[in-house]
Specification:
Layout: E1 2-5, E2 12-18, E3 23-27, E4 30-38, E5 44-49, E6 55-60, E7 67-73, E8 83-92, E9 97-102, E10 108-111, E11 116-117, E12 127-130, E13 148-152, E14 155-159, E15 165-173, E16 177-182, E17 187-192, H1 236-247, E18 259-266, E19 269-275, E20 285-286, H2 292-305, H3 337-341, H4 360-365, H5 372-377, H6 393-407, H7 411-420, E21 430-431, E22 445-446, H8 448-459, E23 463-464, E24 467-468, H9 472-479, E25 496-502, E26 505-514, E27 518-523, E28 528-534, H10 540-560
Antiparallel strand pairs: 1-10, 2-3, 2-9, 3-4, 4-5, 5-6, 6-7, 7-8, 8-9, 8-21, 11-12, 12-13, 13-14, 14-15, 15-16, 16-17, 18-19, 18-28, 20-22, 23-24, 25-26, 26-27, 27-28
Helix pairs in contact: 1-10, 2-6
Length: 563
């Protein structure tokens, strides 16, 4: 196993202090100037930059309130885009200064390379091992497809199935330690031999002791009421069998299920919370495209608040009109918010087609146009709005731009005040576009218990603990069939739809879905919502298989058994 943290992520206490003529921020022993501007309504905007290692952008409702905002850290070698994390400041000494604490997204990697010795003599090779790479955050083994390692003296040669040399290493202590320049990062990583108890990211659990009981999730004052699973009517034996099977699974290949978290809320209570591969409840997890559903929820919030009067609001007028953008086409005037959220805009942004100019990977890898809202609006049309549907990340992200243009408030602030705050989510890691706008195409990192709250909001008709976020009609419409991605009626407004056949009973569900196995299920008929998070990135076959097994063979039957 090799573990490496990349770069220095600024973290820790921050103090804003008043000087005779200005304000300064003190971080890690250094001070930098702070820009502070007051508006006519008494609100105050605060910003400061810290030596290109991060910057703060915040808002203060009035001179007596807390300063609320975000710490924005620059891209790094692991993630090539910026991240924003919440950063609030509280006053001290009657407003003479403010104190806060930076909790950044730390860019690090843990790689696991098991070595299985092959028997028989191989010319010119001291020892050959079969192997593969497991890495929980990005599943890097899917592109670094090592299958064998040849040891020749102190040299290690990593090859793929075709015998192609992918990388070389150097043994420092045979059988115990070696180093390798990993191609993805261009840096040397040091690997050491680990036992099960010291390899939590490789094995599902450190201990091989069988799981025989599920414990009630902890009460941690995050808004969830918790209970034992059998107290709400679930079959705890069936759920215990599921957790036991995951905990005992053998990480014997690249395509084995890589479950990280499994949570269930039933009848309004959190009844199961299990983590694997070194995760815990305090670690934010990459949502990938499941984060698109949050973009849809923000649209529902805006409609409920009257920010948009209708889902049929035309999109281009919000950005200054069609004439401001490339590829003029009269059909662009017909694109509405409804088309964006149902992925039926007609813009050429087909993520399943690498030749599409609006393909998400193409958009993110180009640097000619850093404004991804303009990039999407510049795209040519391939069909009339509403005529066809195809998976279009750029369109969902464009909803965020529409919100910013309409409210005049940054999407980061809108998300914090209208989504995170009411759902009692104090911490998250929001990925940003090159223009530092919150990205609604997916990838926000949330703690699993916090993401599960979104499912409960929709299950309860748009309400969290008595506070309405979205209308009941929005929930109904979001879960309804509006588009056909893989089959007729399988997509709503940012939610996928799936029906499970369990013991002859059809159970309708709708769910947020992201690469790797990020899935938030809402099951209205069983008063249940389920959060699954996993690391099988770029491996849809494995993800779909464990999705259907976990839901169809264990979780839904556990609810039906006593329903």
């Amino acid at each position: 196993m090799a573990e490496k943290r990349f770069g220095h992520a600024v973290s820790g206490p921050v103090t804003l202090s008043r000087t005779p003529h200005s304000w300064v921020a003190l971080i890690e022993g250094d001070t930098v100037p702070v820009e502070r501007s007051e508006a006519a309504d008494g609100s105050v905007e605060w910003t400061f930059n810290f030596f290109d290692q991060g910057r703060f952008v915040g808002h203060q409702a009035n001179a007596r309130s807390r300063i609320r905002g975000h710490w924005i850290q620059p891209p790094g070698p692991v993630q090539n885009h910026s991240y924003a994390t919440p950063l609030d400041f509280a006053a001290f000494d009657d407003g003479a200064g403010y104190r806060g604490t930076i909790v950044p997204y730390v860019q690090e990697v843990t790689l696991n390379i098991p070595l299985i010795a092959e028997t028989g003599d191989i010319a010119g090779v001291d020892q050959r091992y079969r192997t593969f790479l497991r890495e929980r955050e990005r599943n890097l083994g899917m592109w670094f497809r090592i299958e064998t390692v040849d040891v020749v003296g102190k040299d290690l040669r990593f090859r793929n199935a075709d015998g192609e040399l992918l990388a070389t290493g150097r043994s420092a202590e045979r059988g115990e330690r070696f180093s390798m320049v990993f191609p993805r990062f261009g840096e040397t990583l040091d690997f050491t031999r680990r036992g099960r108890d010291a390899a939590p990211t490789f094995y599902p659990r450190r201990s091989a002791t069988p799981v025989t009981k599920l414990y009630r999730p902890a009460d941690v004052a995050d808004g969830w009421q918790t209970a034992e699973p059998d107290s709400t009517g679930l079959n705890a034996d069936l759920l215990t069998e599921l957790v036991a099977s995951i905990a005992a699974s053998d990480p014997g290949g690249l395509r084995e299920p890589y479950i990280h978290a499994l949570l269930i809320a039933h009848r309004g209570r959190l009844v199961m919370e299990e983590y694997f591969h070194g995760y815990d409840r305090n670690q934010p997890h990459d949502s990938r495209s499941a984060g698109k559903t949050i973009g849809s929820a923000l649209l529902g919030i805006a409609l409920h608040k009257g920010i948009f009067q209708s889902l049929d609001t035309p999109v281009y007028p919000l950005f200054g009109g069609v004439e401001r953008f490339a590829n003029p086409d009269p059909r662009k005037r017909l694109i509405t918010l409804r088309h964006l959220v149902s992925m039926s805009s007609g813009l050429d942004c087909r993520d399943d087609n690498p030749d599409s100019p609006g393909n998400e990977d193409t958009m993110q890898s180009q640097d000619a146009q850093p404004d991804w809202y303009r990039y999407a609006l510049d795209l040519p049309m391939v069909s009339a709005p509403g005529d066809s549907s195809f998976y279009c990340t750029a369109g969902i992200n464009l909803i965020g731009g529409a919100l910013q243009r309409t409210t005049g408030v940054s999407l980061l602030r809108f998300f914090q005040e209208n989504f995170a705050d009411p759902l009692e989510i104090p911490y998250y890691q929001m990925n940003l576009s090159p223009t530092q706008d919150a990205y609604m195409g997916g990838g926000i990192r949330l703690r699993p218990r916090d993401f599960l709250k979104l499912g409960q909001v929709y299950l309860d008709g748009g309400v969290w603990k008595g506070r309405r976020l979205v209308s009941q009609e929005w929930v109904r419409q979001s879960a309804a069939a509006h588009s056909a991605m893989n089959q007729p009626g399988d997509y709503g407004y940012g939610w996928w739809r799936q029906t499970f056949d369990v013991d002859g009973r059809s159970i309708d569900t709708y769910f947020a879905s992201g690469n790797g196995g990020q899935m938030l299920f809402v099951v209205p008929d069983l008063d249940m919502t389920v959060m699954i998070q996993a690391g099988n990135y770029s491996d849809g076959r494995t993800r779909n298989a464990f999705r259907d097994r976990i839901m169809g063979s264990f979780i839904l039957p556990a609810a039906i058994a006593r329903n």
